[in-house]
Amino acid sequence: MPVFIVYTELRRLSPVGIEMVDRSLNKMSAKQGLAQMPAKTLQQIYDILDNLSSSVFVALLAIDGKVIYMNRAVLGAIGRTQDDVVGTIFQSDPVLTDVSARQIRRALRASADGIRTHFELSHRNIDGGIRITDTTAHPIFDANGKIAYTLLSGYDITERKVIEQTLHSTHVAIDRAKIALLQVSADGHVHDANDAACELLGYPKETLCGMSVYQLSIRMKRGRWPRMWAKLKARGSIRFELTYFPPNGGKVPIELAVSFAQYEHKEHCFVFITNLSEHKEAEEHVQFLLHYDQLTGLPNRASFISMIERYLSRAQREHLRGAVVIADIDRFWIINDTLGRPVADQLLQQIAQRITHDSKEQNRFARLGADQFAIVIVGTPNEQEVEKRIKHKLRQYFGTPFFVDGHEIYVSAKFGIALLPMGSTDAELLLRHAEIALAHAKKNREQYLFYTQGMADWSAGRLGLENKLRRALERQEFILHYQPKVNLESQHIEGVEALIRWKEPQGGSVVQPMHFIPLLEETGMLADVDAWVLRKAAQDYRWWKEQGLPAPRVAVNISSAQLRRRDFVQSMQYEIANGPHGIDLEITESIVMADVVHNIDKLKAIHEMGVEIAVDDFGTGYSSLSYLIKLPVQTVKIDRSFVSMMLQDSDTNTLVAAIISLAHALRLKVVAEGVETQDQTNALRLLGCDQVQGFFYSKPLSREDLSAFLQRRR
Predict the structure, then answer these.
(1) Are 141 and 27 in contact (CB under 8 A)?
(2) b/e string for 659-694 if b means 16 or more Cβ within 10 A?
(3) DSSP category for residue 96
(4) Does residue 116 sit in helix, strand or coil?
(5) Which terminus of the chain has fewer CB atoms gathered within 10 Å of its CB, N or C?
(6) What would the pLDDT profile of 690-702 be if each residue is shown by its tens digit?
(7) Tell me, what DSSP letter sits at residue 416?
(8) Which of the four pLDDT bands, split at 50, 70 and 90, describes residue 12?
(9) How much is the pLDDT for 215?
C-alpha cells in the first residue's frame, strides 16, 4: 500500500486536517505495518512532514516513549536536531513542563491500550518561553494488529490561548485577532465580534452583535442553547463541527472551539471559528487519491479488487460467468522516451476516455499501473464469448490512432484474461491469475492469453529463479569467464571478451547466461549486474597487471537497458575510475539503432575515456551505413552464424568477405566469433580478418585459468 501518496497531500491540509490523515495512516499501517515499510517510503513520509507549516508538530514514539522521529517544526521550536532526539525518552525530556510530562505518560499508557487521547501540551521553546500545542496521541498498529507506535500530531495554539486570557480583561484584542472570534453571553446573544468573524459569517458588526445563536444556526433548535451552556460550564470548553449558511447563500463547513469565561461577575464564552472549506476539499482529495488514479480518474488497484469482490458475490448469487482482463500497452516506454512525459500522460488519458466511453455492457475499468488498464466483465457464458468480446475491444480501443499534441499515435496492447470461477470469492487471486496470463502473452508475443494452471506452475518456478538471482548478486555467486581474441598474423592474444556465468550454490553447477539474462532484464536487475560486470572486469585486469602478465584488454557487453539509462556515461566513468581499467565495450547494432542519435553522443563520451567500442553480431541487424560511419566504433565483430556457414555456403562466404572489406575501408578492425576449426581459421586469414575468437583457440576461462594460459603463450 503506497502510504506516501496519502502524505503527499498533507501540504494542502489545514492543521485540523491532520487527524484525518492520522486515521488514514493508522488504517494502512494495520495492513502493512510501519516497521515493514521500505526505508525509501518512510523517508518520503518524513520529508513531507518536515515541509509542513512551522506550527504543525508531528512526532513518532515507540510504545515506551522513545523518540523515533520528530518533524522539522518540533526540532526548530526546541532547538534540537534529529540526532539529538532520536533514542531519547520523550516524557523525560526537560523541554516538557512537569504537567505535560505526566500527560505524555498517560497518553502512552492509553495508546498501549489502543485508545486515542487529546490534550494541550506545554513545552519550552528555544528562547525559554512556554508554547502550547493542541495535541492528539494516536496508537499505530503493526501488520499483526499490535500496538507498535504512538503518533503525536498537533498545532500551536499559543496565540489562541493568549487571546483567551487577554479577553478576560480587554475587548481590544477581539478586533485585532486574525482568527474569527465571537464573544457570546450566557443568554445566547452575540456580545462582540471581530472583523474576521464578521467577514466569515457575512454580517456587519452592528448587525452581528445582538443576534442570537438561533439566528446564526438553522440547526440550533429552541431550548438547545441552555443545555449546551450547562455542558460548557461543566467542561470548560467544547469543540464541534457544523455547516454554516451565510446570508448571501452557499454553505461553509466550520469548526467551533468554545471556551467558558467569567469576569466582572458575568459569564461569557468565546467562540473561535475555523473555516474548514480548504480542509474538507483536501480531505476529499486525499480520499480520491486513496481510491482513484490521479491522472485518468479511473479506480486504482485497491478499488478494482473491491470491485472484483462485489462482482464475484453477484456472480455467485446469480450464477453468472465473466472474466477479469488486464491490458498492457505495447512499448509504451518508447512513446514516453521519444515524445516526452506530457504527451505520454495525455495519451493515457485518451486511452482511459476511449475504453470507458461505451459501457453498455456490464464492464468496469481501472488503471493498475503506468501502462496497464483492467476490466471486469460479468455476464459472459463461456470462454468463446469472452474471446469474441476481447477481439471486439481490440478493434474498438486500438483500431484507430490517437491524436496527441500534433502527433498521430497508433497503439496496441497485450491482454491477460482470467475467467471468474464459479463459487470463488478470492479477488486478489483472480487478479493475479490475469497478471500471470498477461506475462505469458507478453513473453510469447501473443495478443491475448487465458490463464491456465500450467502458467501458475511456470510463474512459481520463475519467481523462485528471480529470488535466487536477487540473492546471487548479494552473495557474489556471479563469475566472469574470459575468451581470448587472437591476432591471426602474430598469434598474440590482443584481448578477451568477458562472459558472465552463474555458479549456483546448490550443486555448484555453472549456469549459462541464456538461462538467466532475460529474467534479469525483465525484472530490472540487469543494470546492477551490468555495473558489477564492469567493476569486476576492471579489477581482474588490474590483477593480471599486478601479476606481471601482459594483461589483455577486456571487452564487456552492454545491454539495451544499461545504454538507455540517462546516467550511463557517469556510471561508466565511476566504475572505471580506480586506476588502469583496460575496458572496452561491445554493443549490438540493433541496440545502437534503437536511439541512434542519443547513443552516438553517449558512445563518443565513453570513447573519450580511453574505451574502445566494437559493434557485436555485425550483419545480423539493420544498421544504416551512414550512421555506422558516425559511430565512434573501432571494431566490428562478425556473427558466429556467418562463420559457421562460410565454408558450406558460397553466398555466406561472399558476405563475410564483403564485411571485412567494408570494415577495412572504414579503418575498422574485424573480429570473427565462433571459430572452431583450422579450415575456418585459414579462410578468415585469406580474407584479411584481423582477429578470431572461438573454441579452436580457447574456451572461456576463469581469471586464474586465463593467467596460466597467458603464461604459456609468453
Answers:
(1) no
(2) bbebbeeeebbbbbbbbeeeebbebbeebebbbbbb
(3) B
(4) coil
(5) C
(6) 999 999 999 999 9
(7) E
(8) very low
(9) 85
In angstroms, the CA 39 to CA 2 distance is: 13
Other CB atoms closer than 10 Å to residue 608's CB: what's the count? 10
- The residues, ordered by sequence, that sit 6+ positions from 40 with a Cβ below 8 Å of its Cβ are none
Q: Identify the helix (H) or strand (E) that includes residue 41.
A: helix 39-50
Phi and psi at residue 610, in whole multiples of 5°? 90, 20
Q: What is the full DSSP assignment across 535-603?
A: HHHHHHHHHHHHTT--PPEEEEE--HHHHH-TTHHHHHHHHT-SS---EEEEEEHHHHHHTHHHHHHHH
pLDDT digits (tens, 9 = 90+) for 597-614: 788 888 999 998 889 999
Q: Which residue ranges form the domains of the chain, and what is each CATH number? A: 3-156 (3.30.450.20), 161-279 (3.30.450.20), 296-451 (3.30.70.270), 469-712 (3.20.20.450)
608 DSSP assignment: T
With 0.85 as the threshold, say if the pTM is over it.
Answer: no
Q: What percent of the chain has pLDDT over 70?
A: 86
> Mind listing the pLDDT tens digit for each residue in 78-129?
989 999 999 999 999 999 999 999 999 999 999 999 899 999 999 888 888 8
* 573-588 average pLDDT score: 83
Provide the CA 594 distance to its chain's centre, in angstroms.
26
Nearest-angstrom CA–CA distance, 459 and 468: 14
Rounded CA separation 572/577 (Å)? 9
Residue 463, CB-side half-sphere exposure with 13 Å CA sphere: 8
Higher-confidence residue of 223 and 704: namely: 704
Alpha carbon dihedral 92, 93, 95, 100, in 10-degree steps, equals: -30
Helix axis angle, 277-291 to 18-32, nearest 10°: 20
From residue 546, alpha-carbon distances to 532, 581, 707 in Å are 21, 12, 11
Torsion angle in degrees (nearest 10) through CA of 331, 332, 338, 342: 180
Torsion from C-alpha of 223, 228, 231, 232, nearest 10 degrees? -140
The number of beta carbons lying within 10 Å of the beta carbon of residue 462 is: 16
